[in-house]
Design goal:
Arc Repressor Mutant, subunit A; 2 domains; globular; homodimer; 237 residues; 11 strands; DNA-binding
Chain lengths: 237, 237
Amino acid sequence: MHTWSGVDGSRSAFEDFGCSKPGIPPSRQPDALIAFEQIGTRLHFKRGQEIYAEGDVADSWYSVMSGTVRICKLLADGRRHIAEFCFAGDCFGLFTLAMRAVSAEAVGEVFVMCYPKHQADRLIDENPRLARDLYHRTVCELAKAQSRTTLLARLTATERVASFLIEVFNRGHAPHTLNLPMTRYDIADYLGLTLETVCRELSALKRDGVIASSGRRSTRIELGDRDALEGLCEAAR
Amino acid sequence: MHTWSGVDGSRSAFEDFGCSKPGIPPSRQPDALIAFEQIGTRLHFKRGQEIYAEGDVADSWYSVMSGTVRICKLLADGRRHIAEFCFAGDCFGLFTLAMRAVSAEAVGEVFVMCYPKHQADRLIDENPRLARDLYHRTVCELAKAQSRTTLLARLTATERVASFLIEVFNRGHAPHTLNLPMTRYDIADYLGLTLETVCRELSALKRDGVIASSGRRSTRIELGDRDALEGLCEAAR
DNA sequence: CGCCAGTTTGACCAAGATCAACGCAAGTGG
DNA sequence: CCACTTGCGTTGATCTTGGTCAAACTGGCG
């Protein structure tokens, strides 16, 4: 009760609907799950393909099955900002006005589930637990967006890159190893930097033994010294 | 119906509860209004006073009666970011997790209404229209936060200051005149700049006849050339 | 093999930050 | 009422961070 504008510790009803972090098994699946799965369509996108565009009618939402999706805002003169990366288990296109203000693109090979909004809304209207959960998720999203504004307004390049690495390490499964699916260009547009600056910061971290990279295109990152990495963005807590 | 994750054009139920833009009269006030007004307390704060602090339990929310409130995030080493300015008619402290991640402070003399969360939640639980409306407001807030991330990530100092002026002009009542209640320092912390840069950008706008300032402490801003101002941030649309 | 897309590094540049001085109006206390 | 202080705004000089431009490198792939 009274969970509209606060957070209880309870498990998210949405986790049962394909939005859970991988590895968290949907313990007991309520009836609504069947309905939700029935209304979903499995879609496939290739590297760089657009899932939806700025200006589109927002008539469906998505959850990532596998791969990574980037949420982009393009300025009139070509400057780009990436608002968010969505990994397996994340939802996107959900907390939105009637028209898309941003586009969604596949970073690499991606499989998503697509849920038509009008059907999803009916399920939500019928299920107060889902509705509360949706609200809770939106508030979490808002908190995340606000902490990103602080990062962009006040952190240095070093702190931004360090925060980014900690963020993706925390979201991944392995505590000390990580596959970066996106390019340096994507990371730069996410952090409000240039790809060269991102590169230099990563090189500095490698030089200092904080991280190590391997694999083709340096996509595989090994975390050498988590404390050092956290120390680099401790000001931001 | 089905307004959970989209926007209908209908008037906000919240507007009837002290959250309306000034000037929009609450046409017909439903019964719930009486209840909402009964649970509110009128509070007064002086310039610089803290309304709530980072780390506080979020057990109430607020609407601004008069004056301006700034929502602040303080970093460990003293850097500050202002996430938002709230003017008369705005709500704040509403879309939040259990604990405050930011603080709220009075920019000048401020009167606010304070609503205890547990009582407000009960009203919301009993009133589906209110609940939907709350959700809609949260989604709007999220959209605003996201467009602010783009501003901070990719716009130049000139563009940021121009966007800021347009934003406050659009929120004010008069189309060509405006009172800036906050200091240059506040504006800088909102835009991710320094106060000197804000000052220089404003001086440049004055020099070019886009705006004019008067009054004590240059708080009164006259808009000379709206097209020019909009042109300065057209890239951001 | 040669091309392509992405990464890395270096040299140089510029936007904006920092440091500093001064102006100006509103208190404040004698 | 006036000297003094305080807080904010403005402007200039200089510096630094991160951007821009350019070249070399790397591994994958047709």
